[in-house]
Amino acid sequence: MDKVSKEFIDDLTVQGMLHCAAVRSRIHRGTIREIVAPELPPNVMMIREADLPGGNCISMGNADVPLLAGSNVEHIGQAVALLCGPNEPEVHRLAELVEVQYDRGDPLTLTRDFKINQKLYSRQIAIGNTQTAFEKASQIVEGEYTYRPEGTIPVGAAGALAVVENDGIRVATPTRWLFHVRQSVAAATGLHQDRVRVMSTRVTRADTNCLWYPSLTAAQTAVAALVTGKPVRMIATAREKRLLLTKRTGCIITHKTALGRSGEVTAMEIQIVAESGAFGIFAAEYLDRLCLAASGSYAAKSLKLDAVYIATSTPPAETHGGAGFDGAFFSVEVHANRLAELCQEDPSVWRLKNLLPDRGLTVTRARAGPTPQRKLIDLVVELSDFRRKYSANEMLKKRGDRPNFIPGYLRGIGIATCFHGGSFMSDNRANSATVTVKLNSESELSILSSSAMVPEATVDILSNSAARILNIDSSQVHIEPADTAAVPDSGPAIFSRDVTVVHRLLTSCCQTIQKQRFRTPLPIEMSRNRSGGRGRRWDPEIFRGVPFSPLSWASCVVEIELDTVTFELSIRGVWIAIHPGSLLDEKRATSLVESELHAAFEACGGYNRFFEPVIRFSQRSGARPAALEGIATNVFAPAFVSAVSQATGFYFDSVPLSKTLILQYLET
Amino acid sequence: MTVSFLLNGKSVSLDVPPNKRLVDVLREDFHLEGARPGCYAGECGACTVFVNGELTHSCLVPVFAAQDTDIITYEGLADTQEMKYILAGFDAVHYHPCANCRQSRLLTAYALLTTHPVPERREIDAFFSGHRCGCSSMGELYTAIEQAVDMRRRSGRHGRR
Question: Minimal Cα–Cα distance from A8 to chain B, Å?
């Protein structure tokens, strides 16, 4: 348990350790009548809700998530009971044999006709008078867009190991939010947080952006360790990973847009129904991100937005990709391409005409600063030869005899643009962070941060930056392992916070140390913290102000080819231009964007991920680094779906796009 | 069930449940941890090993199917000159896939360069199509493979196509 930061959780073992398997619900929703266990061997113990020593819930993003289903099952795969025993395959086998008898309820699903008890949060925004604008409009265009991306199974191991000690409990788990795990374990075990020590095992970029699952598993494992009095390890099986860790947020967004005579947007009415599974973890956050991005970067004098966040009977979603932004940009950008087509304009030209002008009023009633979006659109248009290709495809489509010109293939090209923010809009606790730096008498620097090691790539970026400021070799910089007993709380390592928050605090610490190091005797210790809400010009209650600073921006063009015989979709090219403020490591940033584009293609239903995107960064010297994680996800899906729509001549309005769906459209 | 096979050139046999996955047998019974169980569904490629000379996802192979086969894991090739070129190529361009899939990628690169001494990109794509770990980009991989080829060429061990 001492050198866990470089180990995978499934490689960690402790003498006398028990293995834990969860008995999971096989139905989506219902009431538990009885749990009938088979005859258990004497060394196997079953833990039910009544056996829990602390509270039966952890708190995550304003939601209460039960450790074990009490009387009600809220989603498929929810843990109903825990089995602990010395033999791992045996406990999993026995868990399968436990029979849970239910009174089945109707599963809650993502639909516009949701039930009233599904509603968790809602938000209404009204700017100007949409009714008058729609009455005066020369064209009104409506569209409904469904975004339910497919998640992939994370490669890394998931689970937790808990050991009860004299003075408390020690837990190891691969997590991106160390201190939340501690809080959850404390809540579940009834111990004071000071008696809970949490260490993160190795977390890689390929792992899911785990927030809720490690906290819940760690809490369940800790409870099992406390009840049995022995070390307990719980590792997610492949089935559990597929069931519980692939879920992504989904939404149905309806756009109704009023256009003026020259194709300019005069009013927008947007209705959003969104979900992130059971319990509504981070529901308010996702909803606010959806509302912020739902009207895109377009200038509409009047806007009416009605958004509802609902609970569904699926496992909670992890914070993948844009966490709300992706669904919003999918709908608004696909809709924008459709508007451009109806106005018989090139979508890039239509965008340039309709983008919010500098100093224009945003949806949060803040004045927009000068944005690089026009420059980014021009750049991807030029790189991809978008205008020529788009016109050529349109011409071929209108002639209606394309298979004679390009035998066996249909081609299409699509464009999308977005902005992106790298912090939490409504959760101030998740936004706060502390970083501590120590320079010892040997000029060796220690960086103490709970999210510096996640993901691995950040380690080099932070070490090199610190070494450069202090003029020492990067080998003299050590990043302390993520351990609640040793490092301060730096918040969750998602949304590029490692770069936008931790790096900034670290830089500030190092600059202060550099000023003091030749005047003050070593060692010097320096801490910097960022309070979640302080100094922000953003009020989540009334949805006004500037929620993110700085913002990052991107524009993307996707060209696809559809084989008319096999209906195989392949990517002919992806061009993406990003303005991330400034970059700390261009090579790693390129790698991150490329892997995100491949993942986004898979989320859209694609399989052949071997395409080489053209990635360009437009930086501004002296600018602060902005969020990069998730930005490619925001723009890929709308550009891709628009490209497929152009290729086939049908308006596709949903993700994922399966071969079957395309075939169905083409047959009609 | 007693299963016997060649493991990294040595004949081994063990008593094991016949449906235990090969990746688990390699890790738990032989402590060869180069192959990692990622998805247990043949999707991620982290568990890749050679079975009778073919790159195989060992999470999809029940151990009874490995009877009388020749299995080579990353550990069996780690000290070969070929693997050293690949490692050097990866290091030279700072290509560092995550610890989940690193060794299986090295093994796949080995298989690629053994059969295609100067691979084209479509051949790299074909060999790595079984790796779906999103830790690193294909662009980085192409550069790393090209670097490994270059290093081998400079050492005079370049095989002609």
Answer: 9
Residue B64 lies in a domain: yes
Tell whether B13 is covered by a domain: yes
Residue A404 pLDDT level (bands cut at 50, 70, 90): very low
- Measured in whole angstroms, how far is the alpha carbon of residue A299 from the centre of its chain? 27
Instruction: Match 């192979």 to its residue by tokens.
Output: B61
- Domain edge (last residue) among B18, B52, B73: B73
B61-86 residue pLDDT tens = 999 999 999 999 999 999 999 899 99
Domain A433-530 class?
A: alpha beta
- B94 close contact with A: CB closer than 8 A: yes
Closest Cα to residue A570, out of B51, B125, B151, B82? B125
Asked if A246 is an interface residue toward chain B (Cβ–Cβ < 8 A), one would say no
Query: Per the domain annotation, does B159 fall within a domain?
Result: no
Indicate yes or no: CB of A591 within 8 angstroms of CB of B140.
Answer: yes
Topology agreement, domain A321-424+546-667 and domain A433-530: yes
Q: How far apart are CA A605 and CA B60, in angstroms?
A: 23
**Residues on chain A touching B101 (C-beta within 8 angstroms):** 155, 206
CA nearest neighbour of A245 among A206, A272, A282? A206
Q: Which residues of A touch B96 (CB under 8 A)?
A: 456
Q: Is the pLDDT of residue B158 over 50?
A: yes
Residue owning tokens 């998730």: A630
Residues 356-375 of A with CB under 8 A from B: none
Q: Is A99 on the interface with B (CB under 8 A)?
A: no
Sign of CA dihedral B34, B37, B39, B43: positive
Chain A residues in contact with B136 (beta carbon < 8 A): 591, 595
Instruction: Give the domain A9-103+154-244 fold.
Output: Aldehyde Oxidoreductase; domain 3 (3.90.1170)
User: At which residue do the structure tokens 């509802």 appear?
Assistant: A308
Contact B92, B124 (CB under 8 A): no
How much is the average pLDDT of A398-427? 77
Residues B12 and B33 in one domain: yes
Same domain, B6 and B68: yes
Predicted complex ipTM = 0.74
* Position B160 confidence tier, pLDDT thresholds 50, 70, 90: very low
pLDDT confidence bin for A155, thresholds 50/70/90? confident
Q: Tokens at residue B75, please?
A: 């550990």
Indicate whether B21 and B52 sit together in one domain: yes
Alpha carbon A21 to its chain's center: 27
Burial class from Cβ neighbours inside 10 Å (0-12, 13-18, 19+) for residue A326 reads buried
Residue A335 to residues A111, A146, A213, A368, A603, Cα–Cα distance (Å): 20, 12, 35, 22, 20
Chain A positions touching B37 (Cβ under 8 A) are 10, 157, 238
B66/B27 same-domain check? yes
A624 burial type by CB count under 10 A (0-12 exposed, 13-18 middle, 19+ buried): middle
Domain that holds residue B143: 78-154
B40 Cα to chain A: minimum distance (Å): 6
Return the domain boundaries, chain A.
9-103+154-244, 321-424+546-667, 433-530
- Among B16, B60, B132, pick the best mutation site for testing chain A contact (most A Cβ within 10 A): B132
- Vertex A115, ends A111 and A117: CA angle to 5°? 130
Does B84 share its domain with B63?
A: no
CB atoms within 10 A of CB A364: 22
Nearest CA in chain A to B94: A587
A433 Rama class: left (phi>0) / alpha (psi -120 to 50) / beta: beta
Out of A241, A456, A596, closest to residue B98 by CB:
A456
The verdict on residue B82 lying in a domain is yes
The DSSP element (H or E) to which A327 belongs, if any, is helix A325-342
The pLDDT of residue A533 is above 80: no
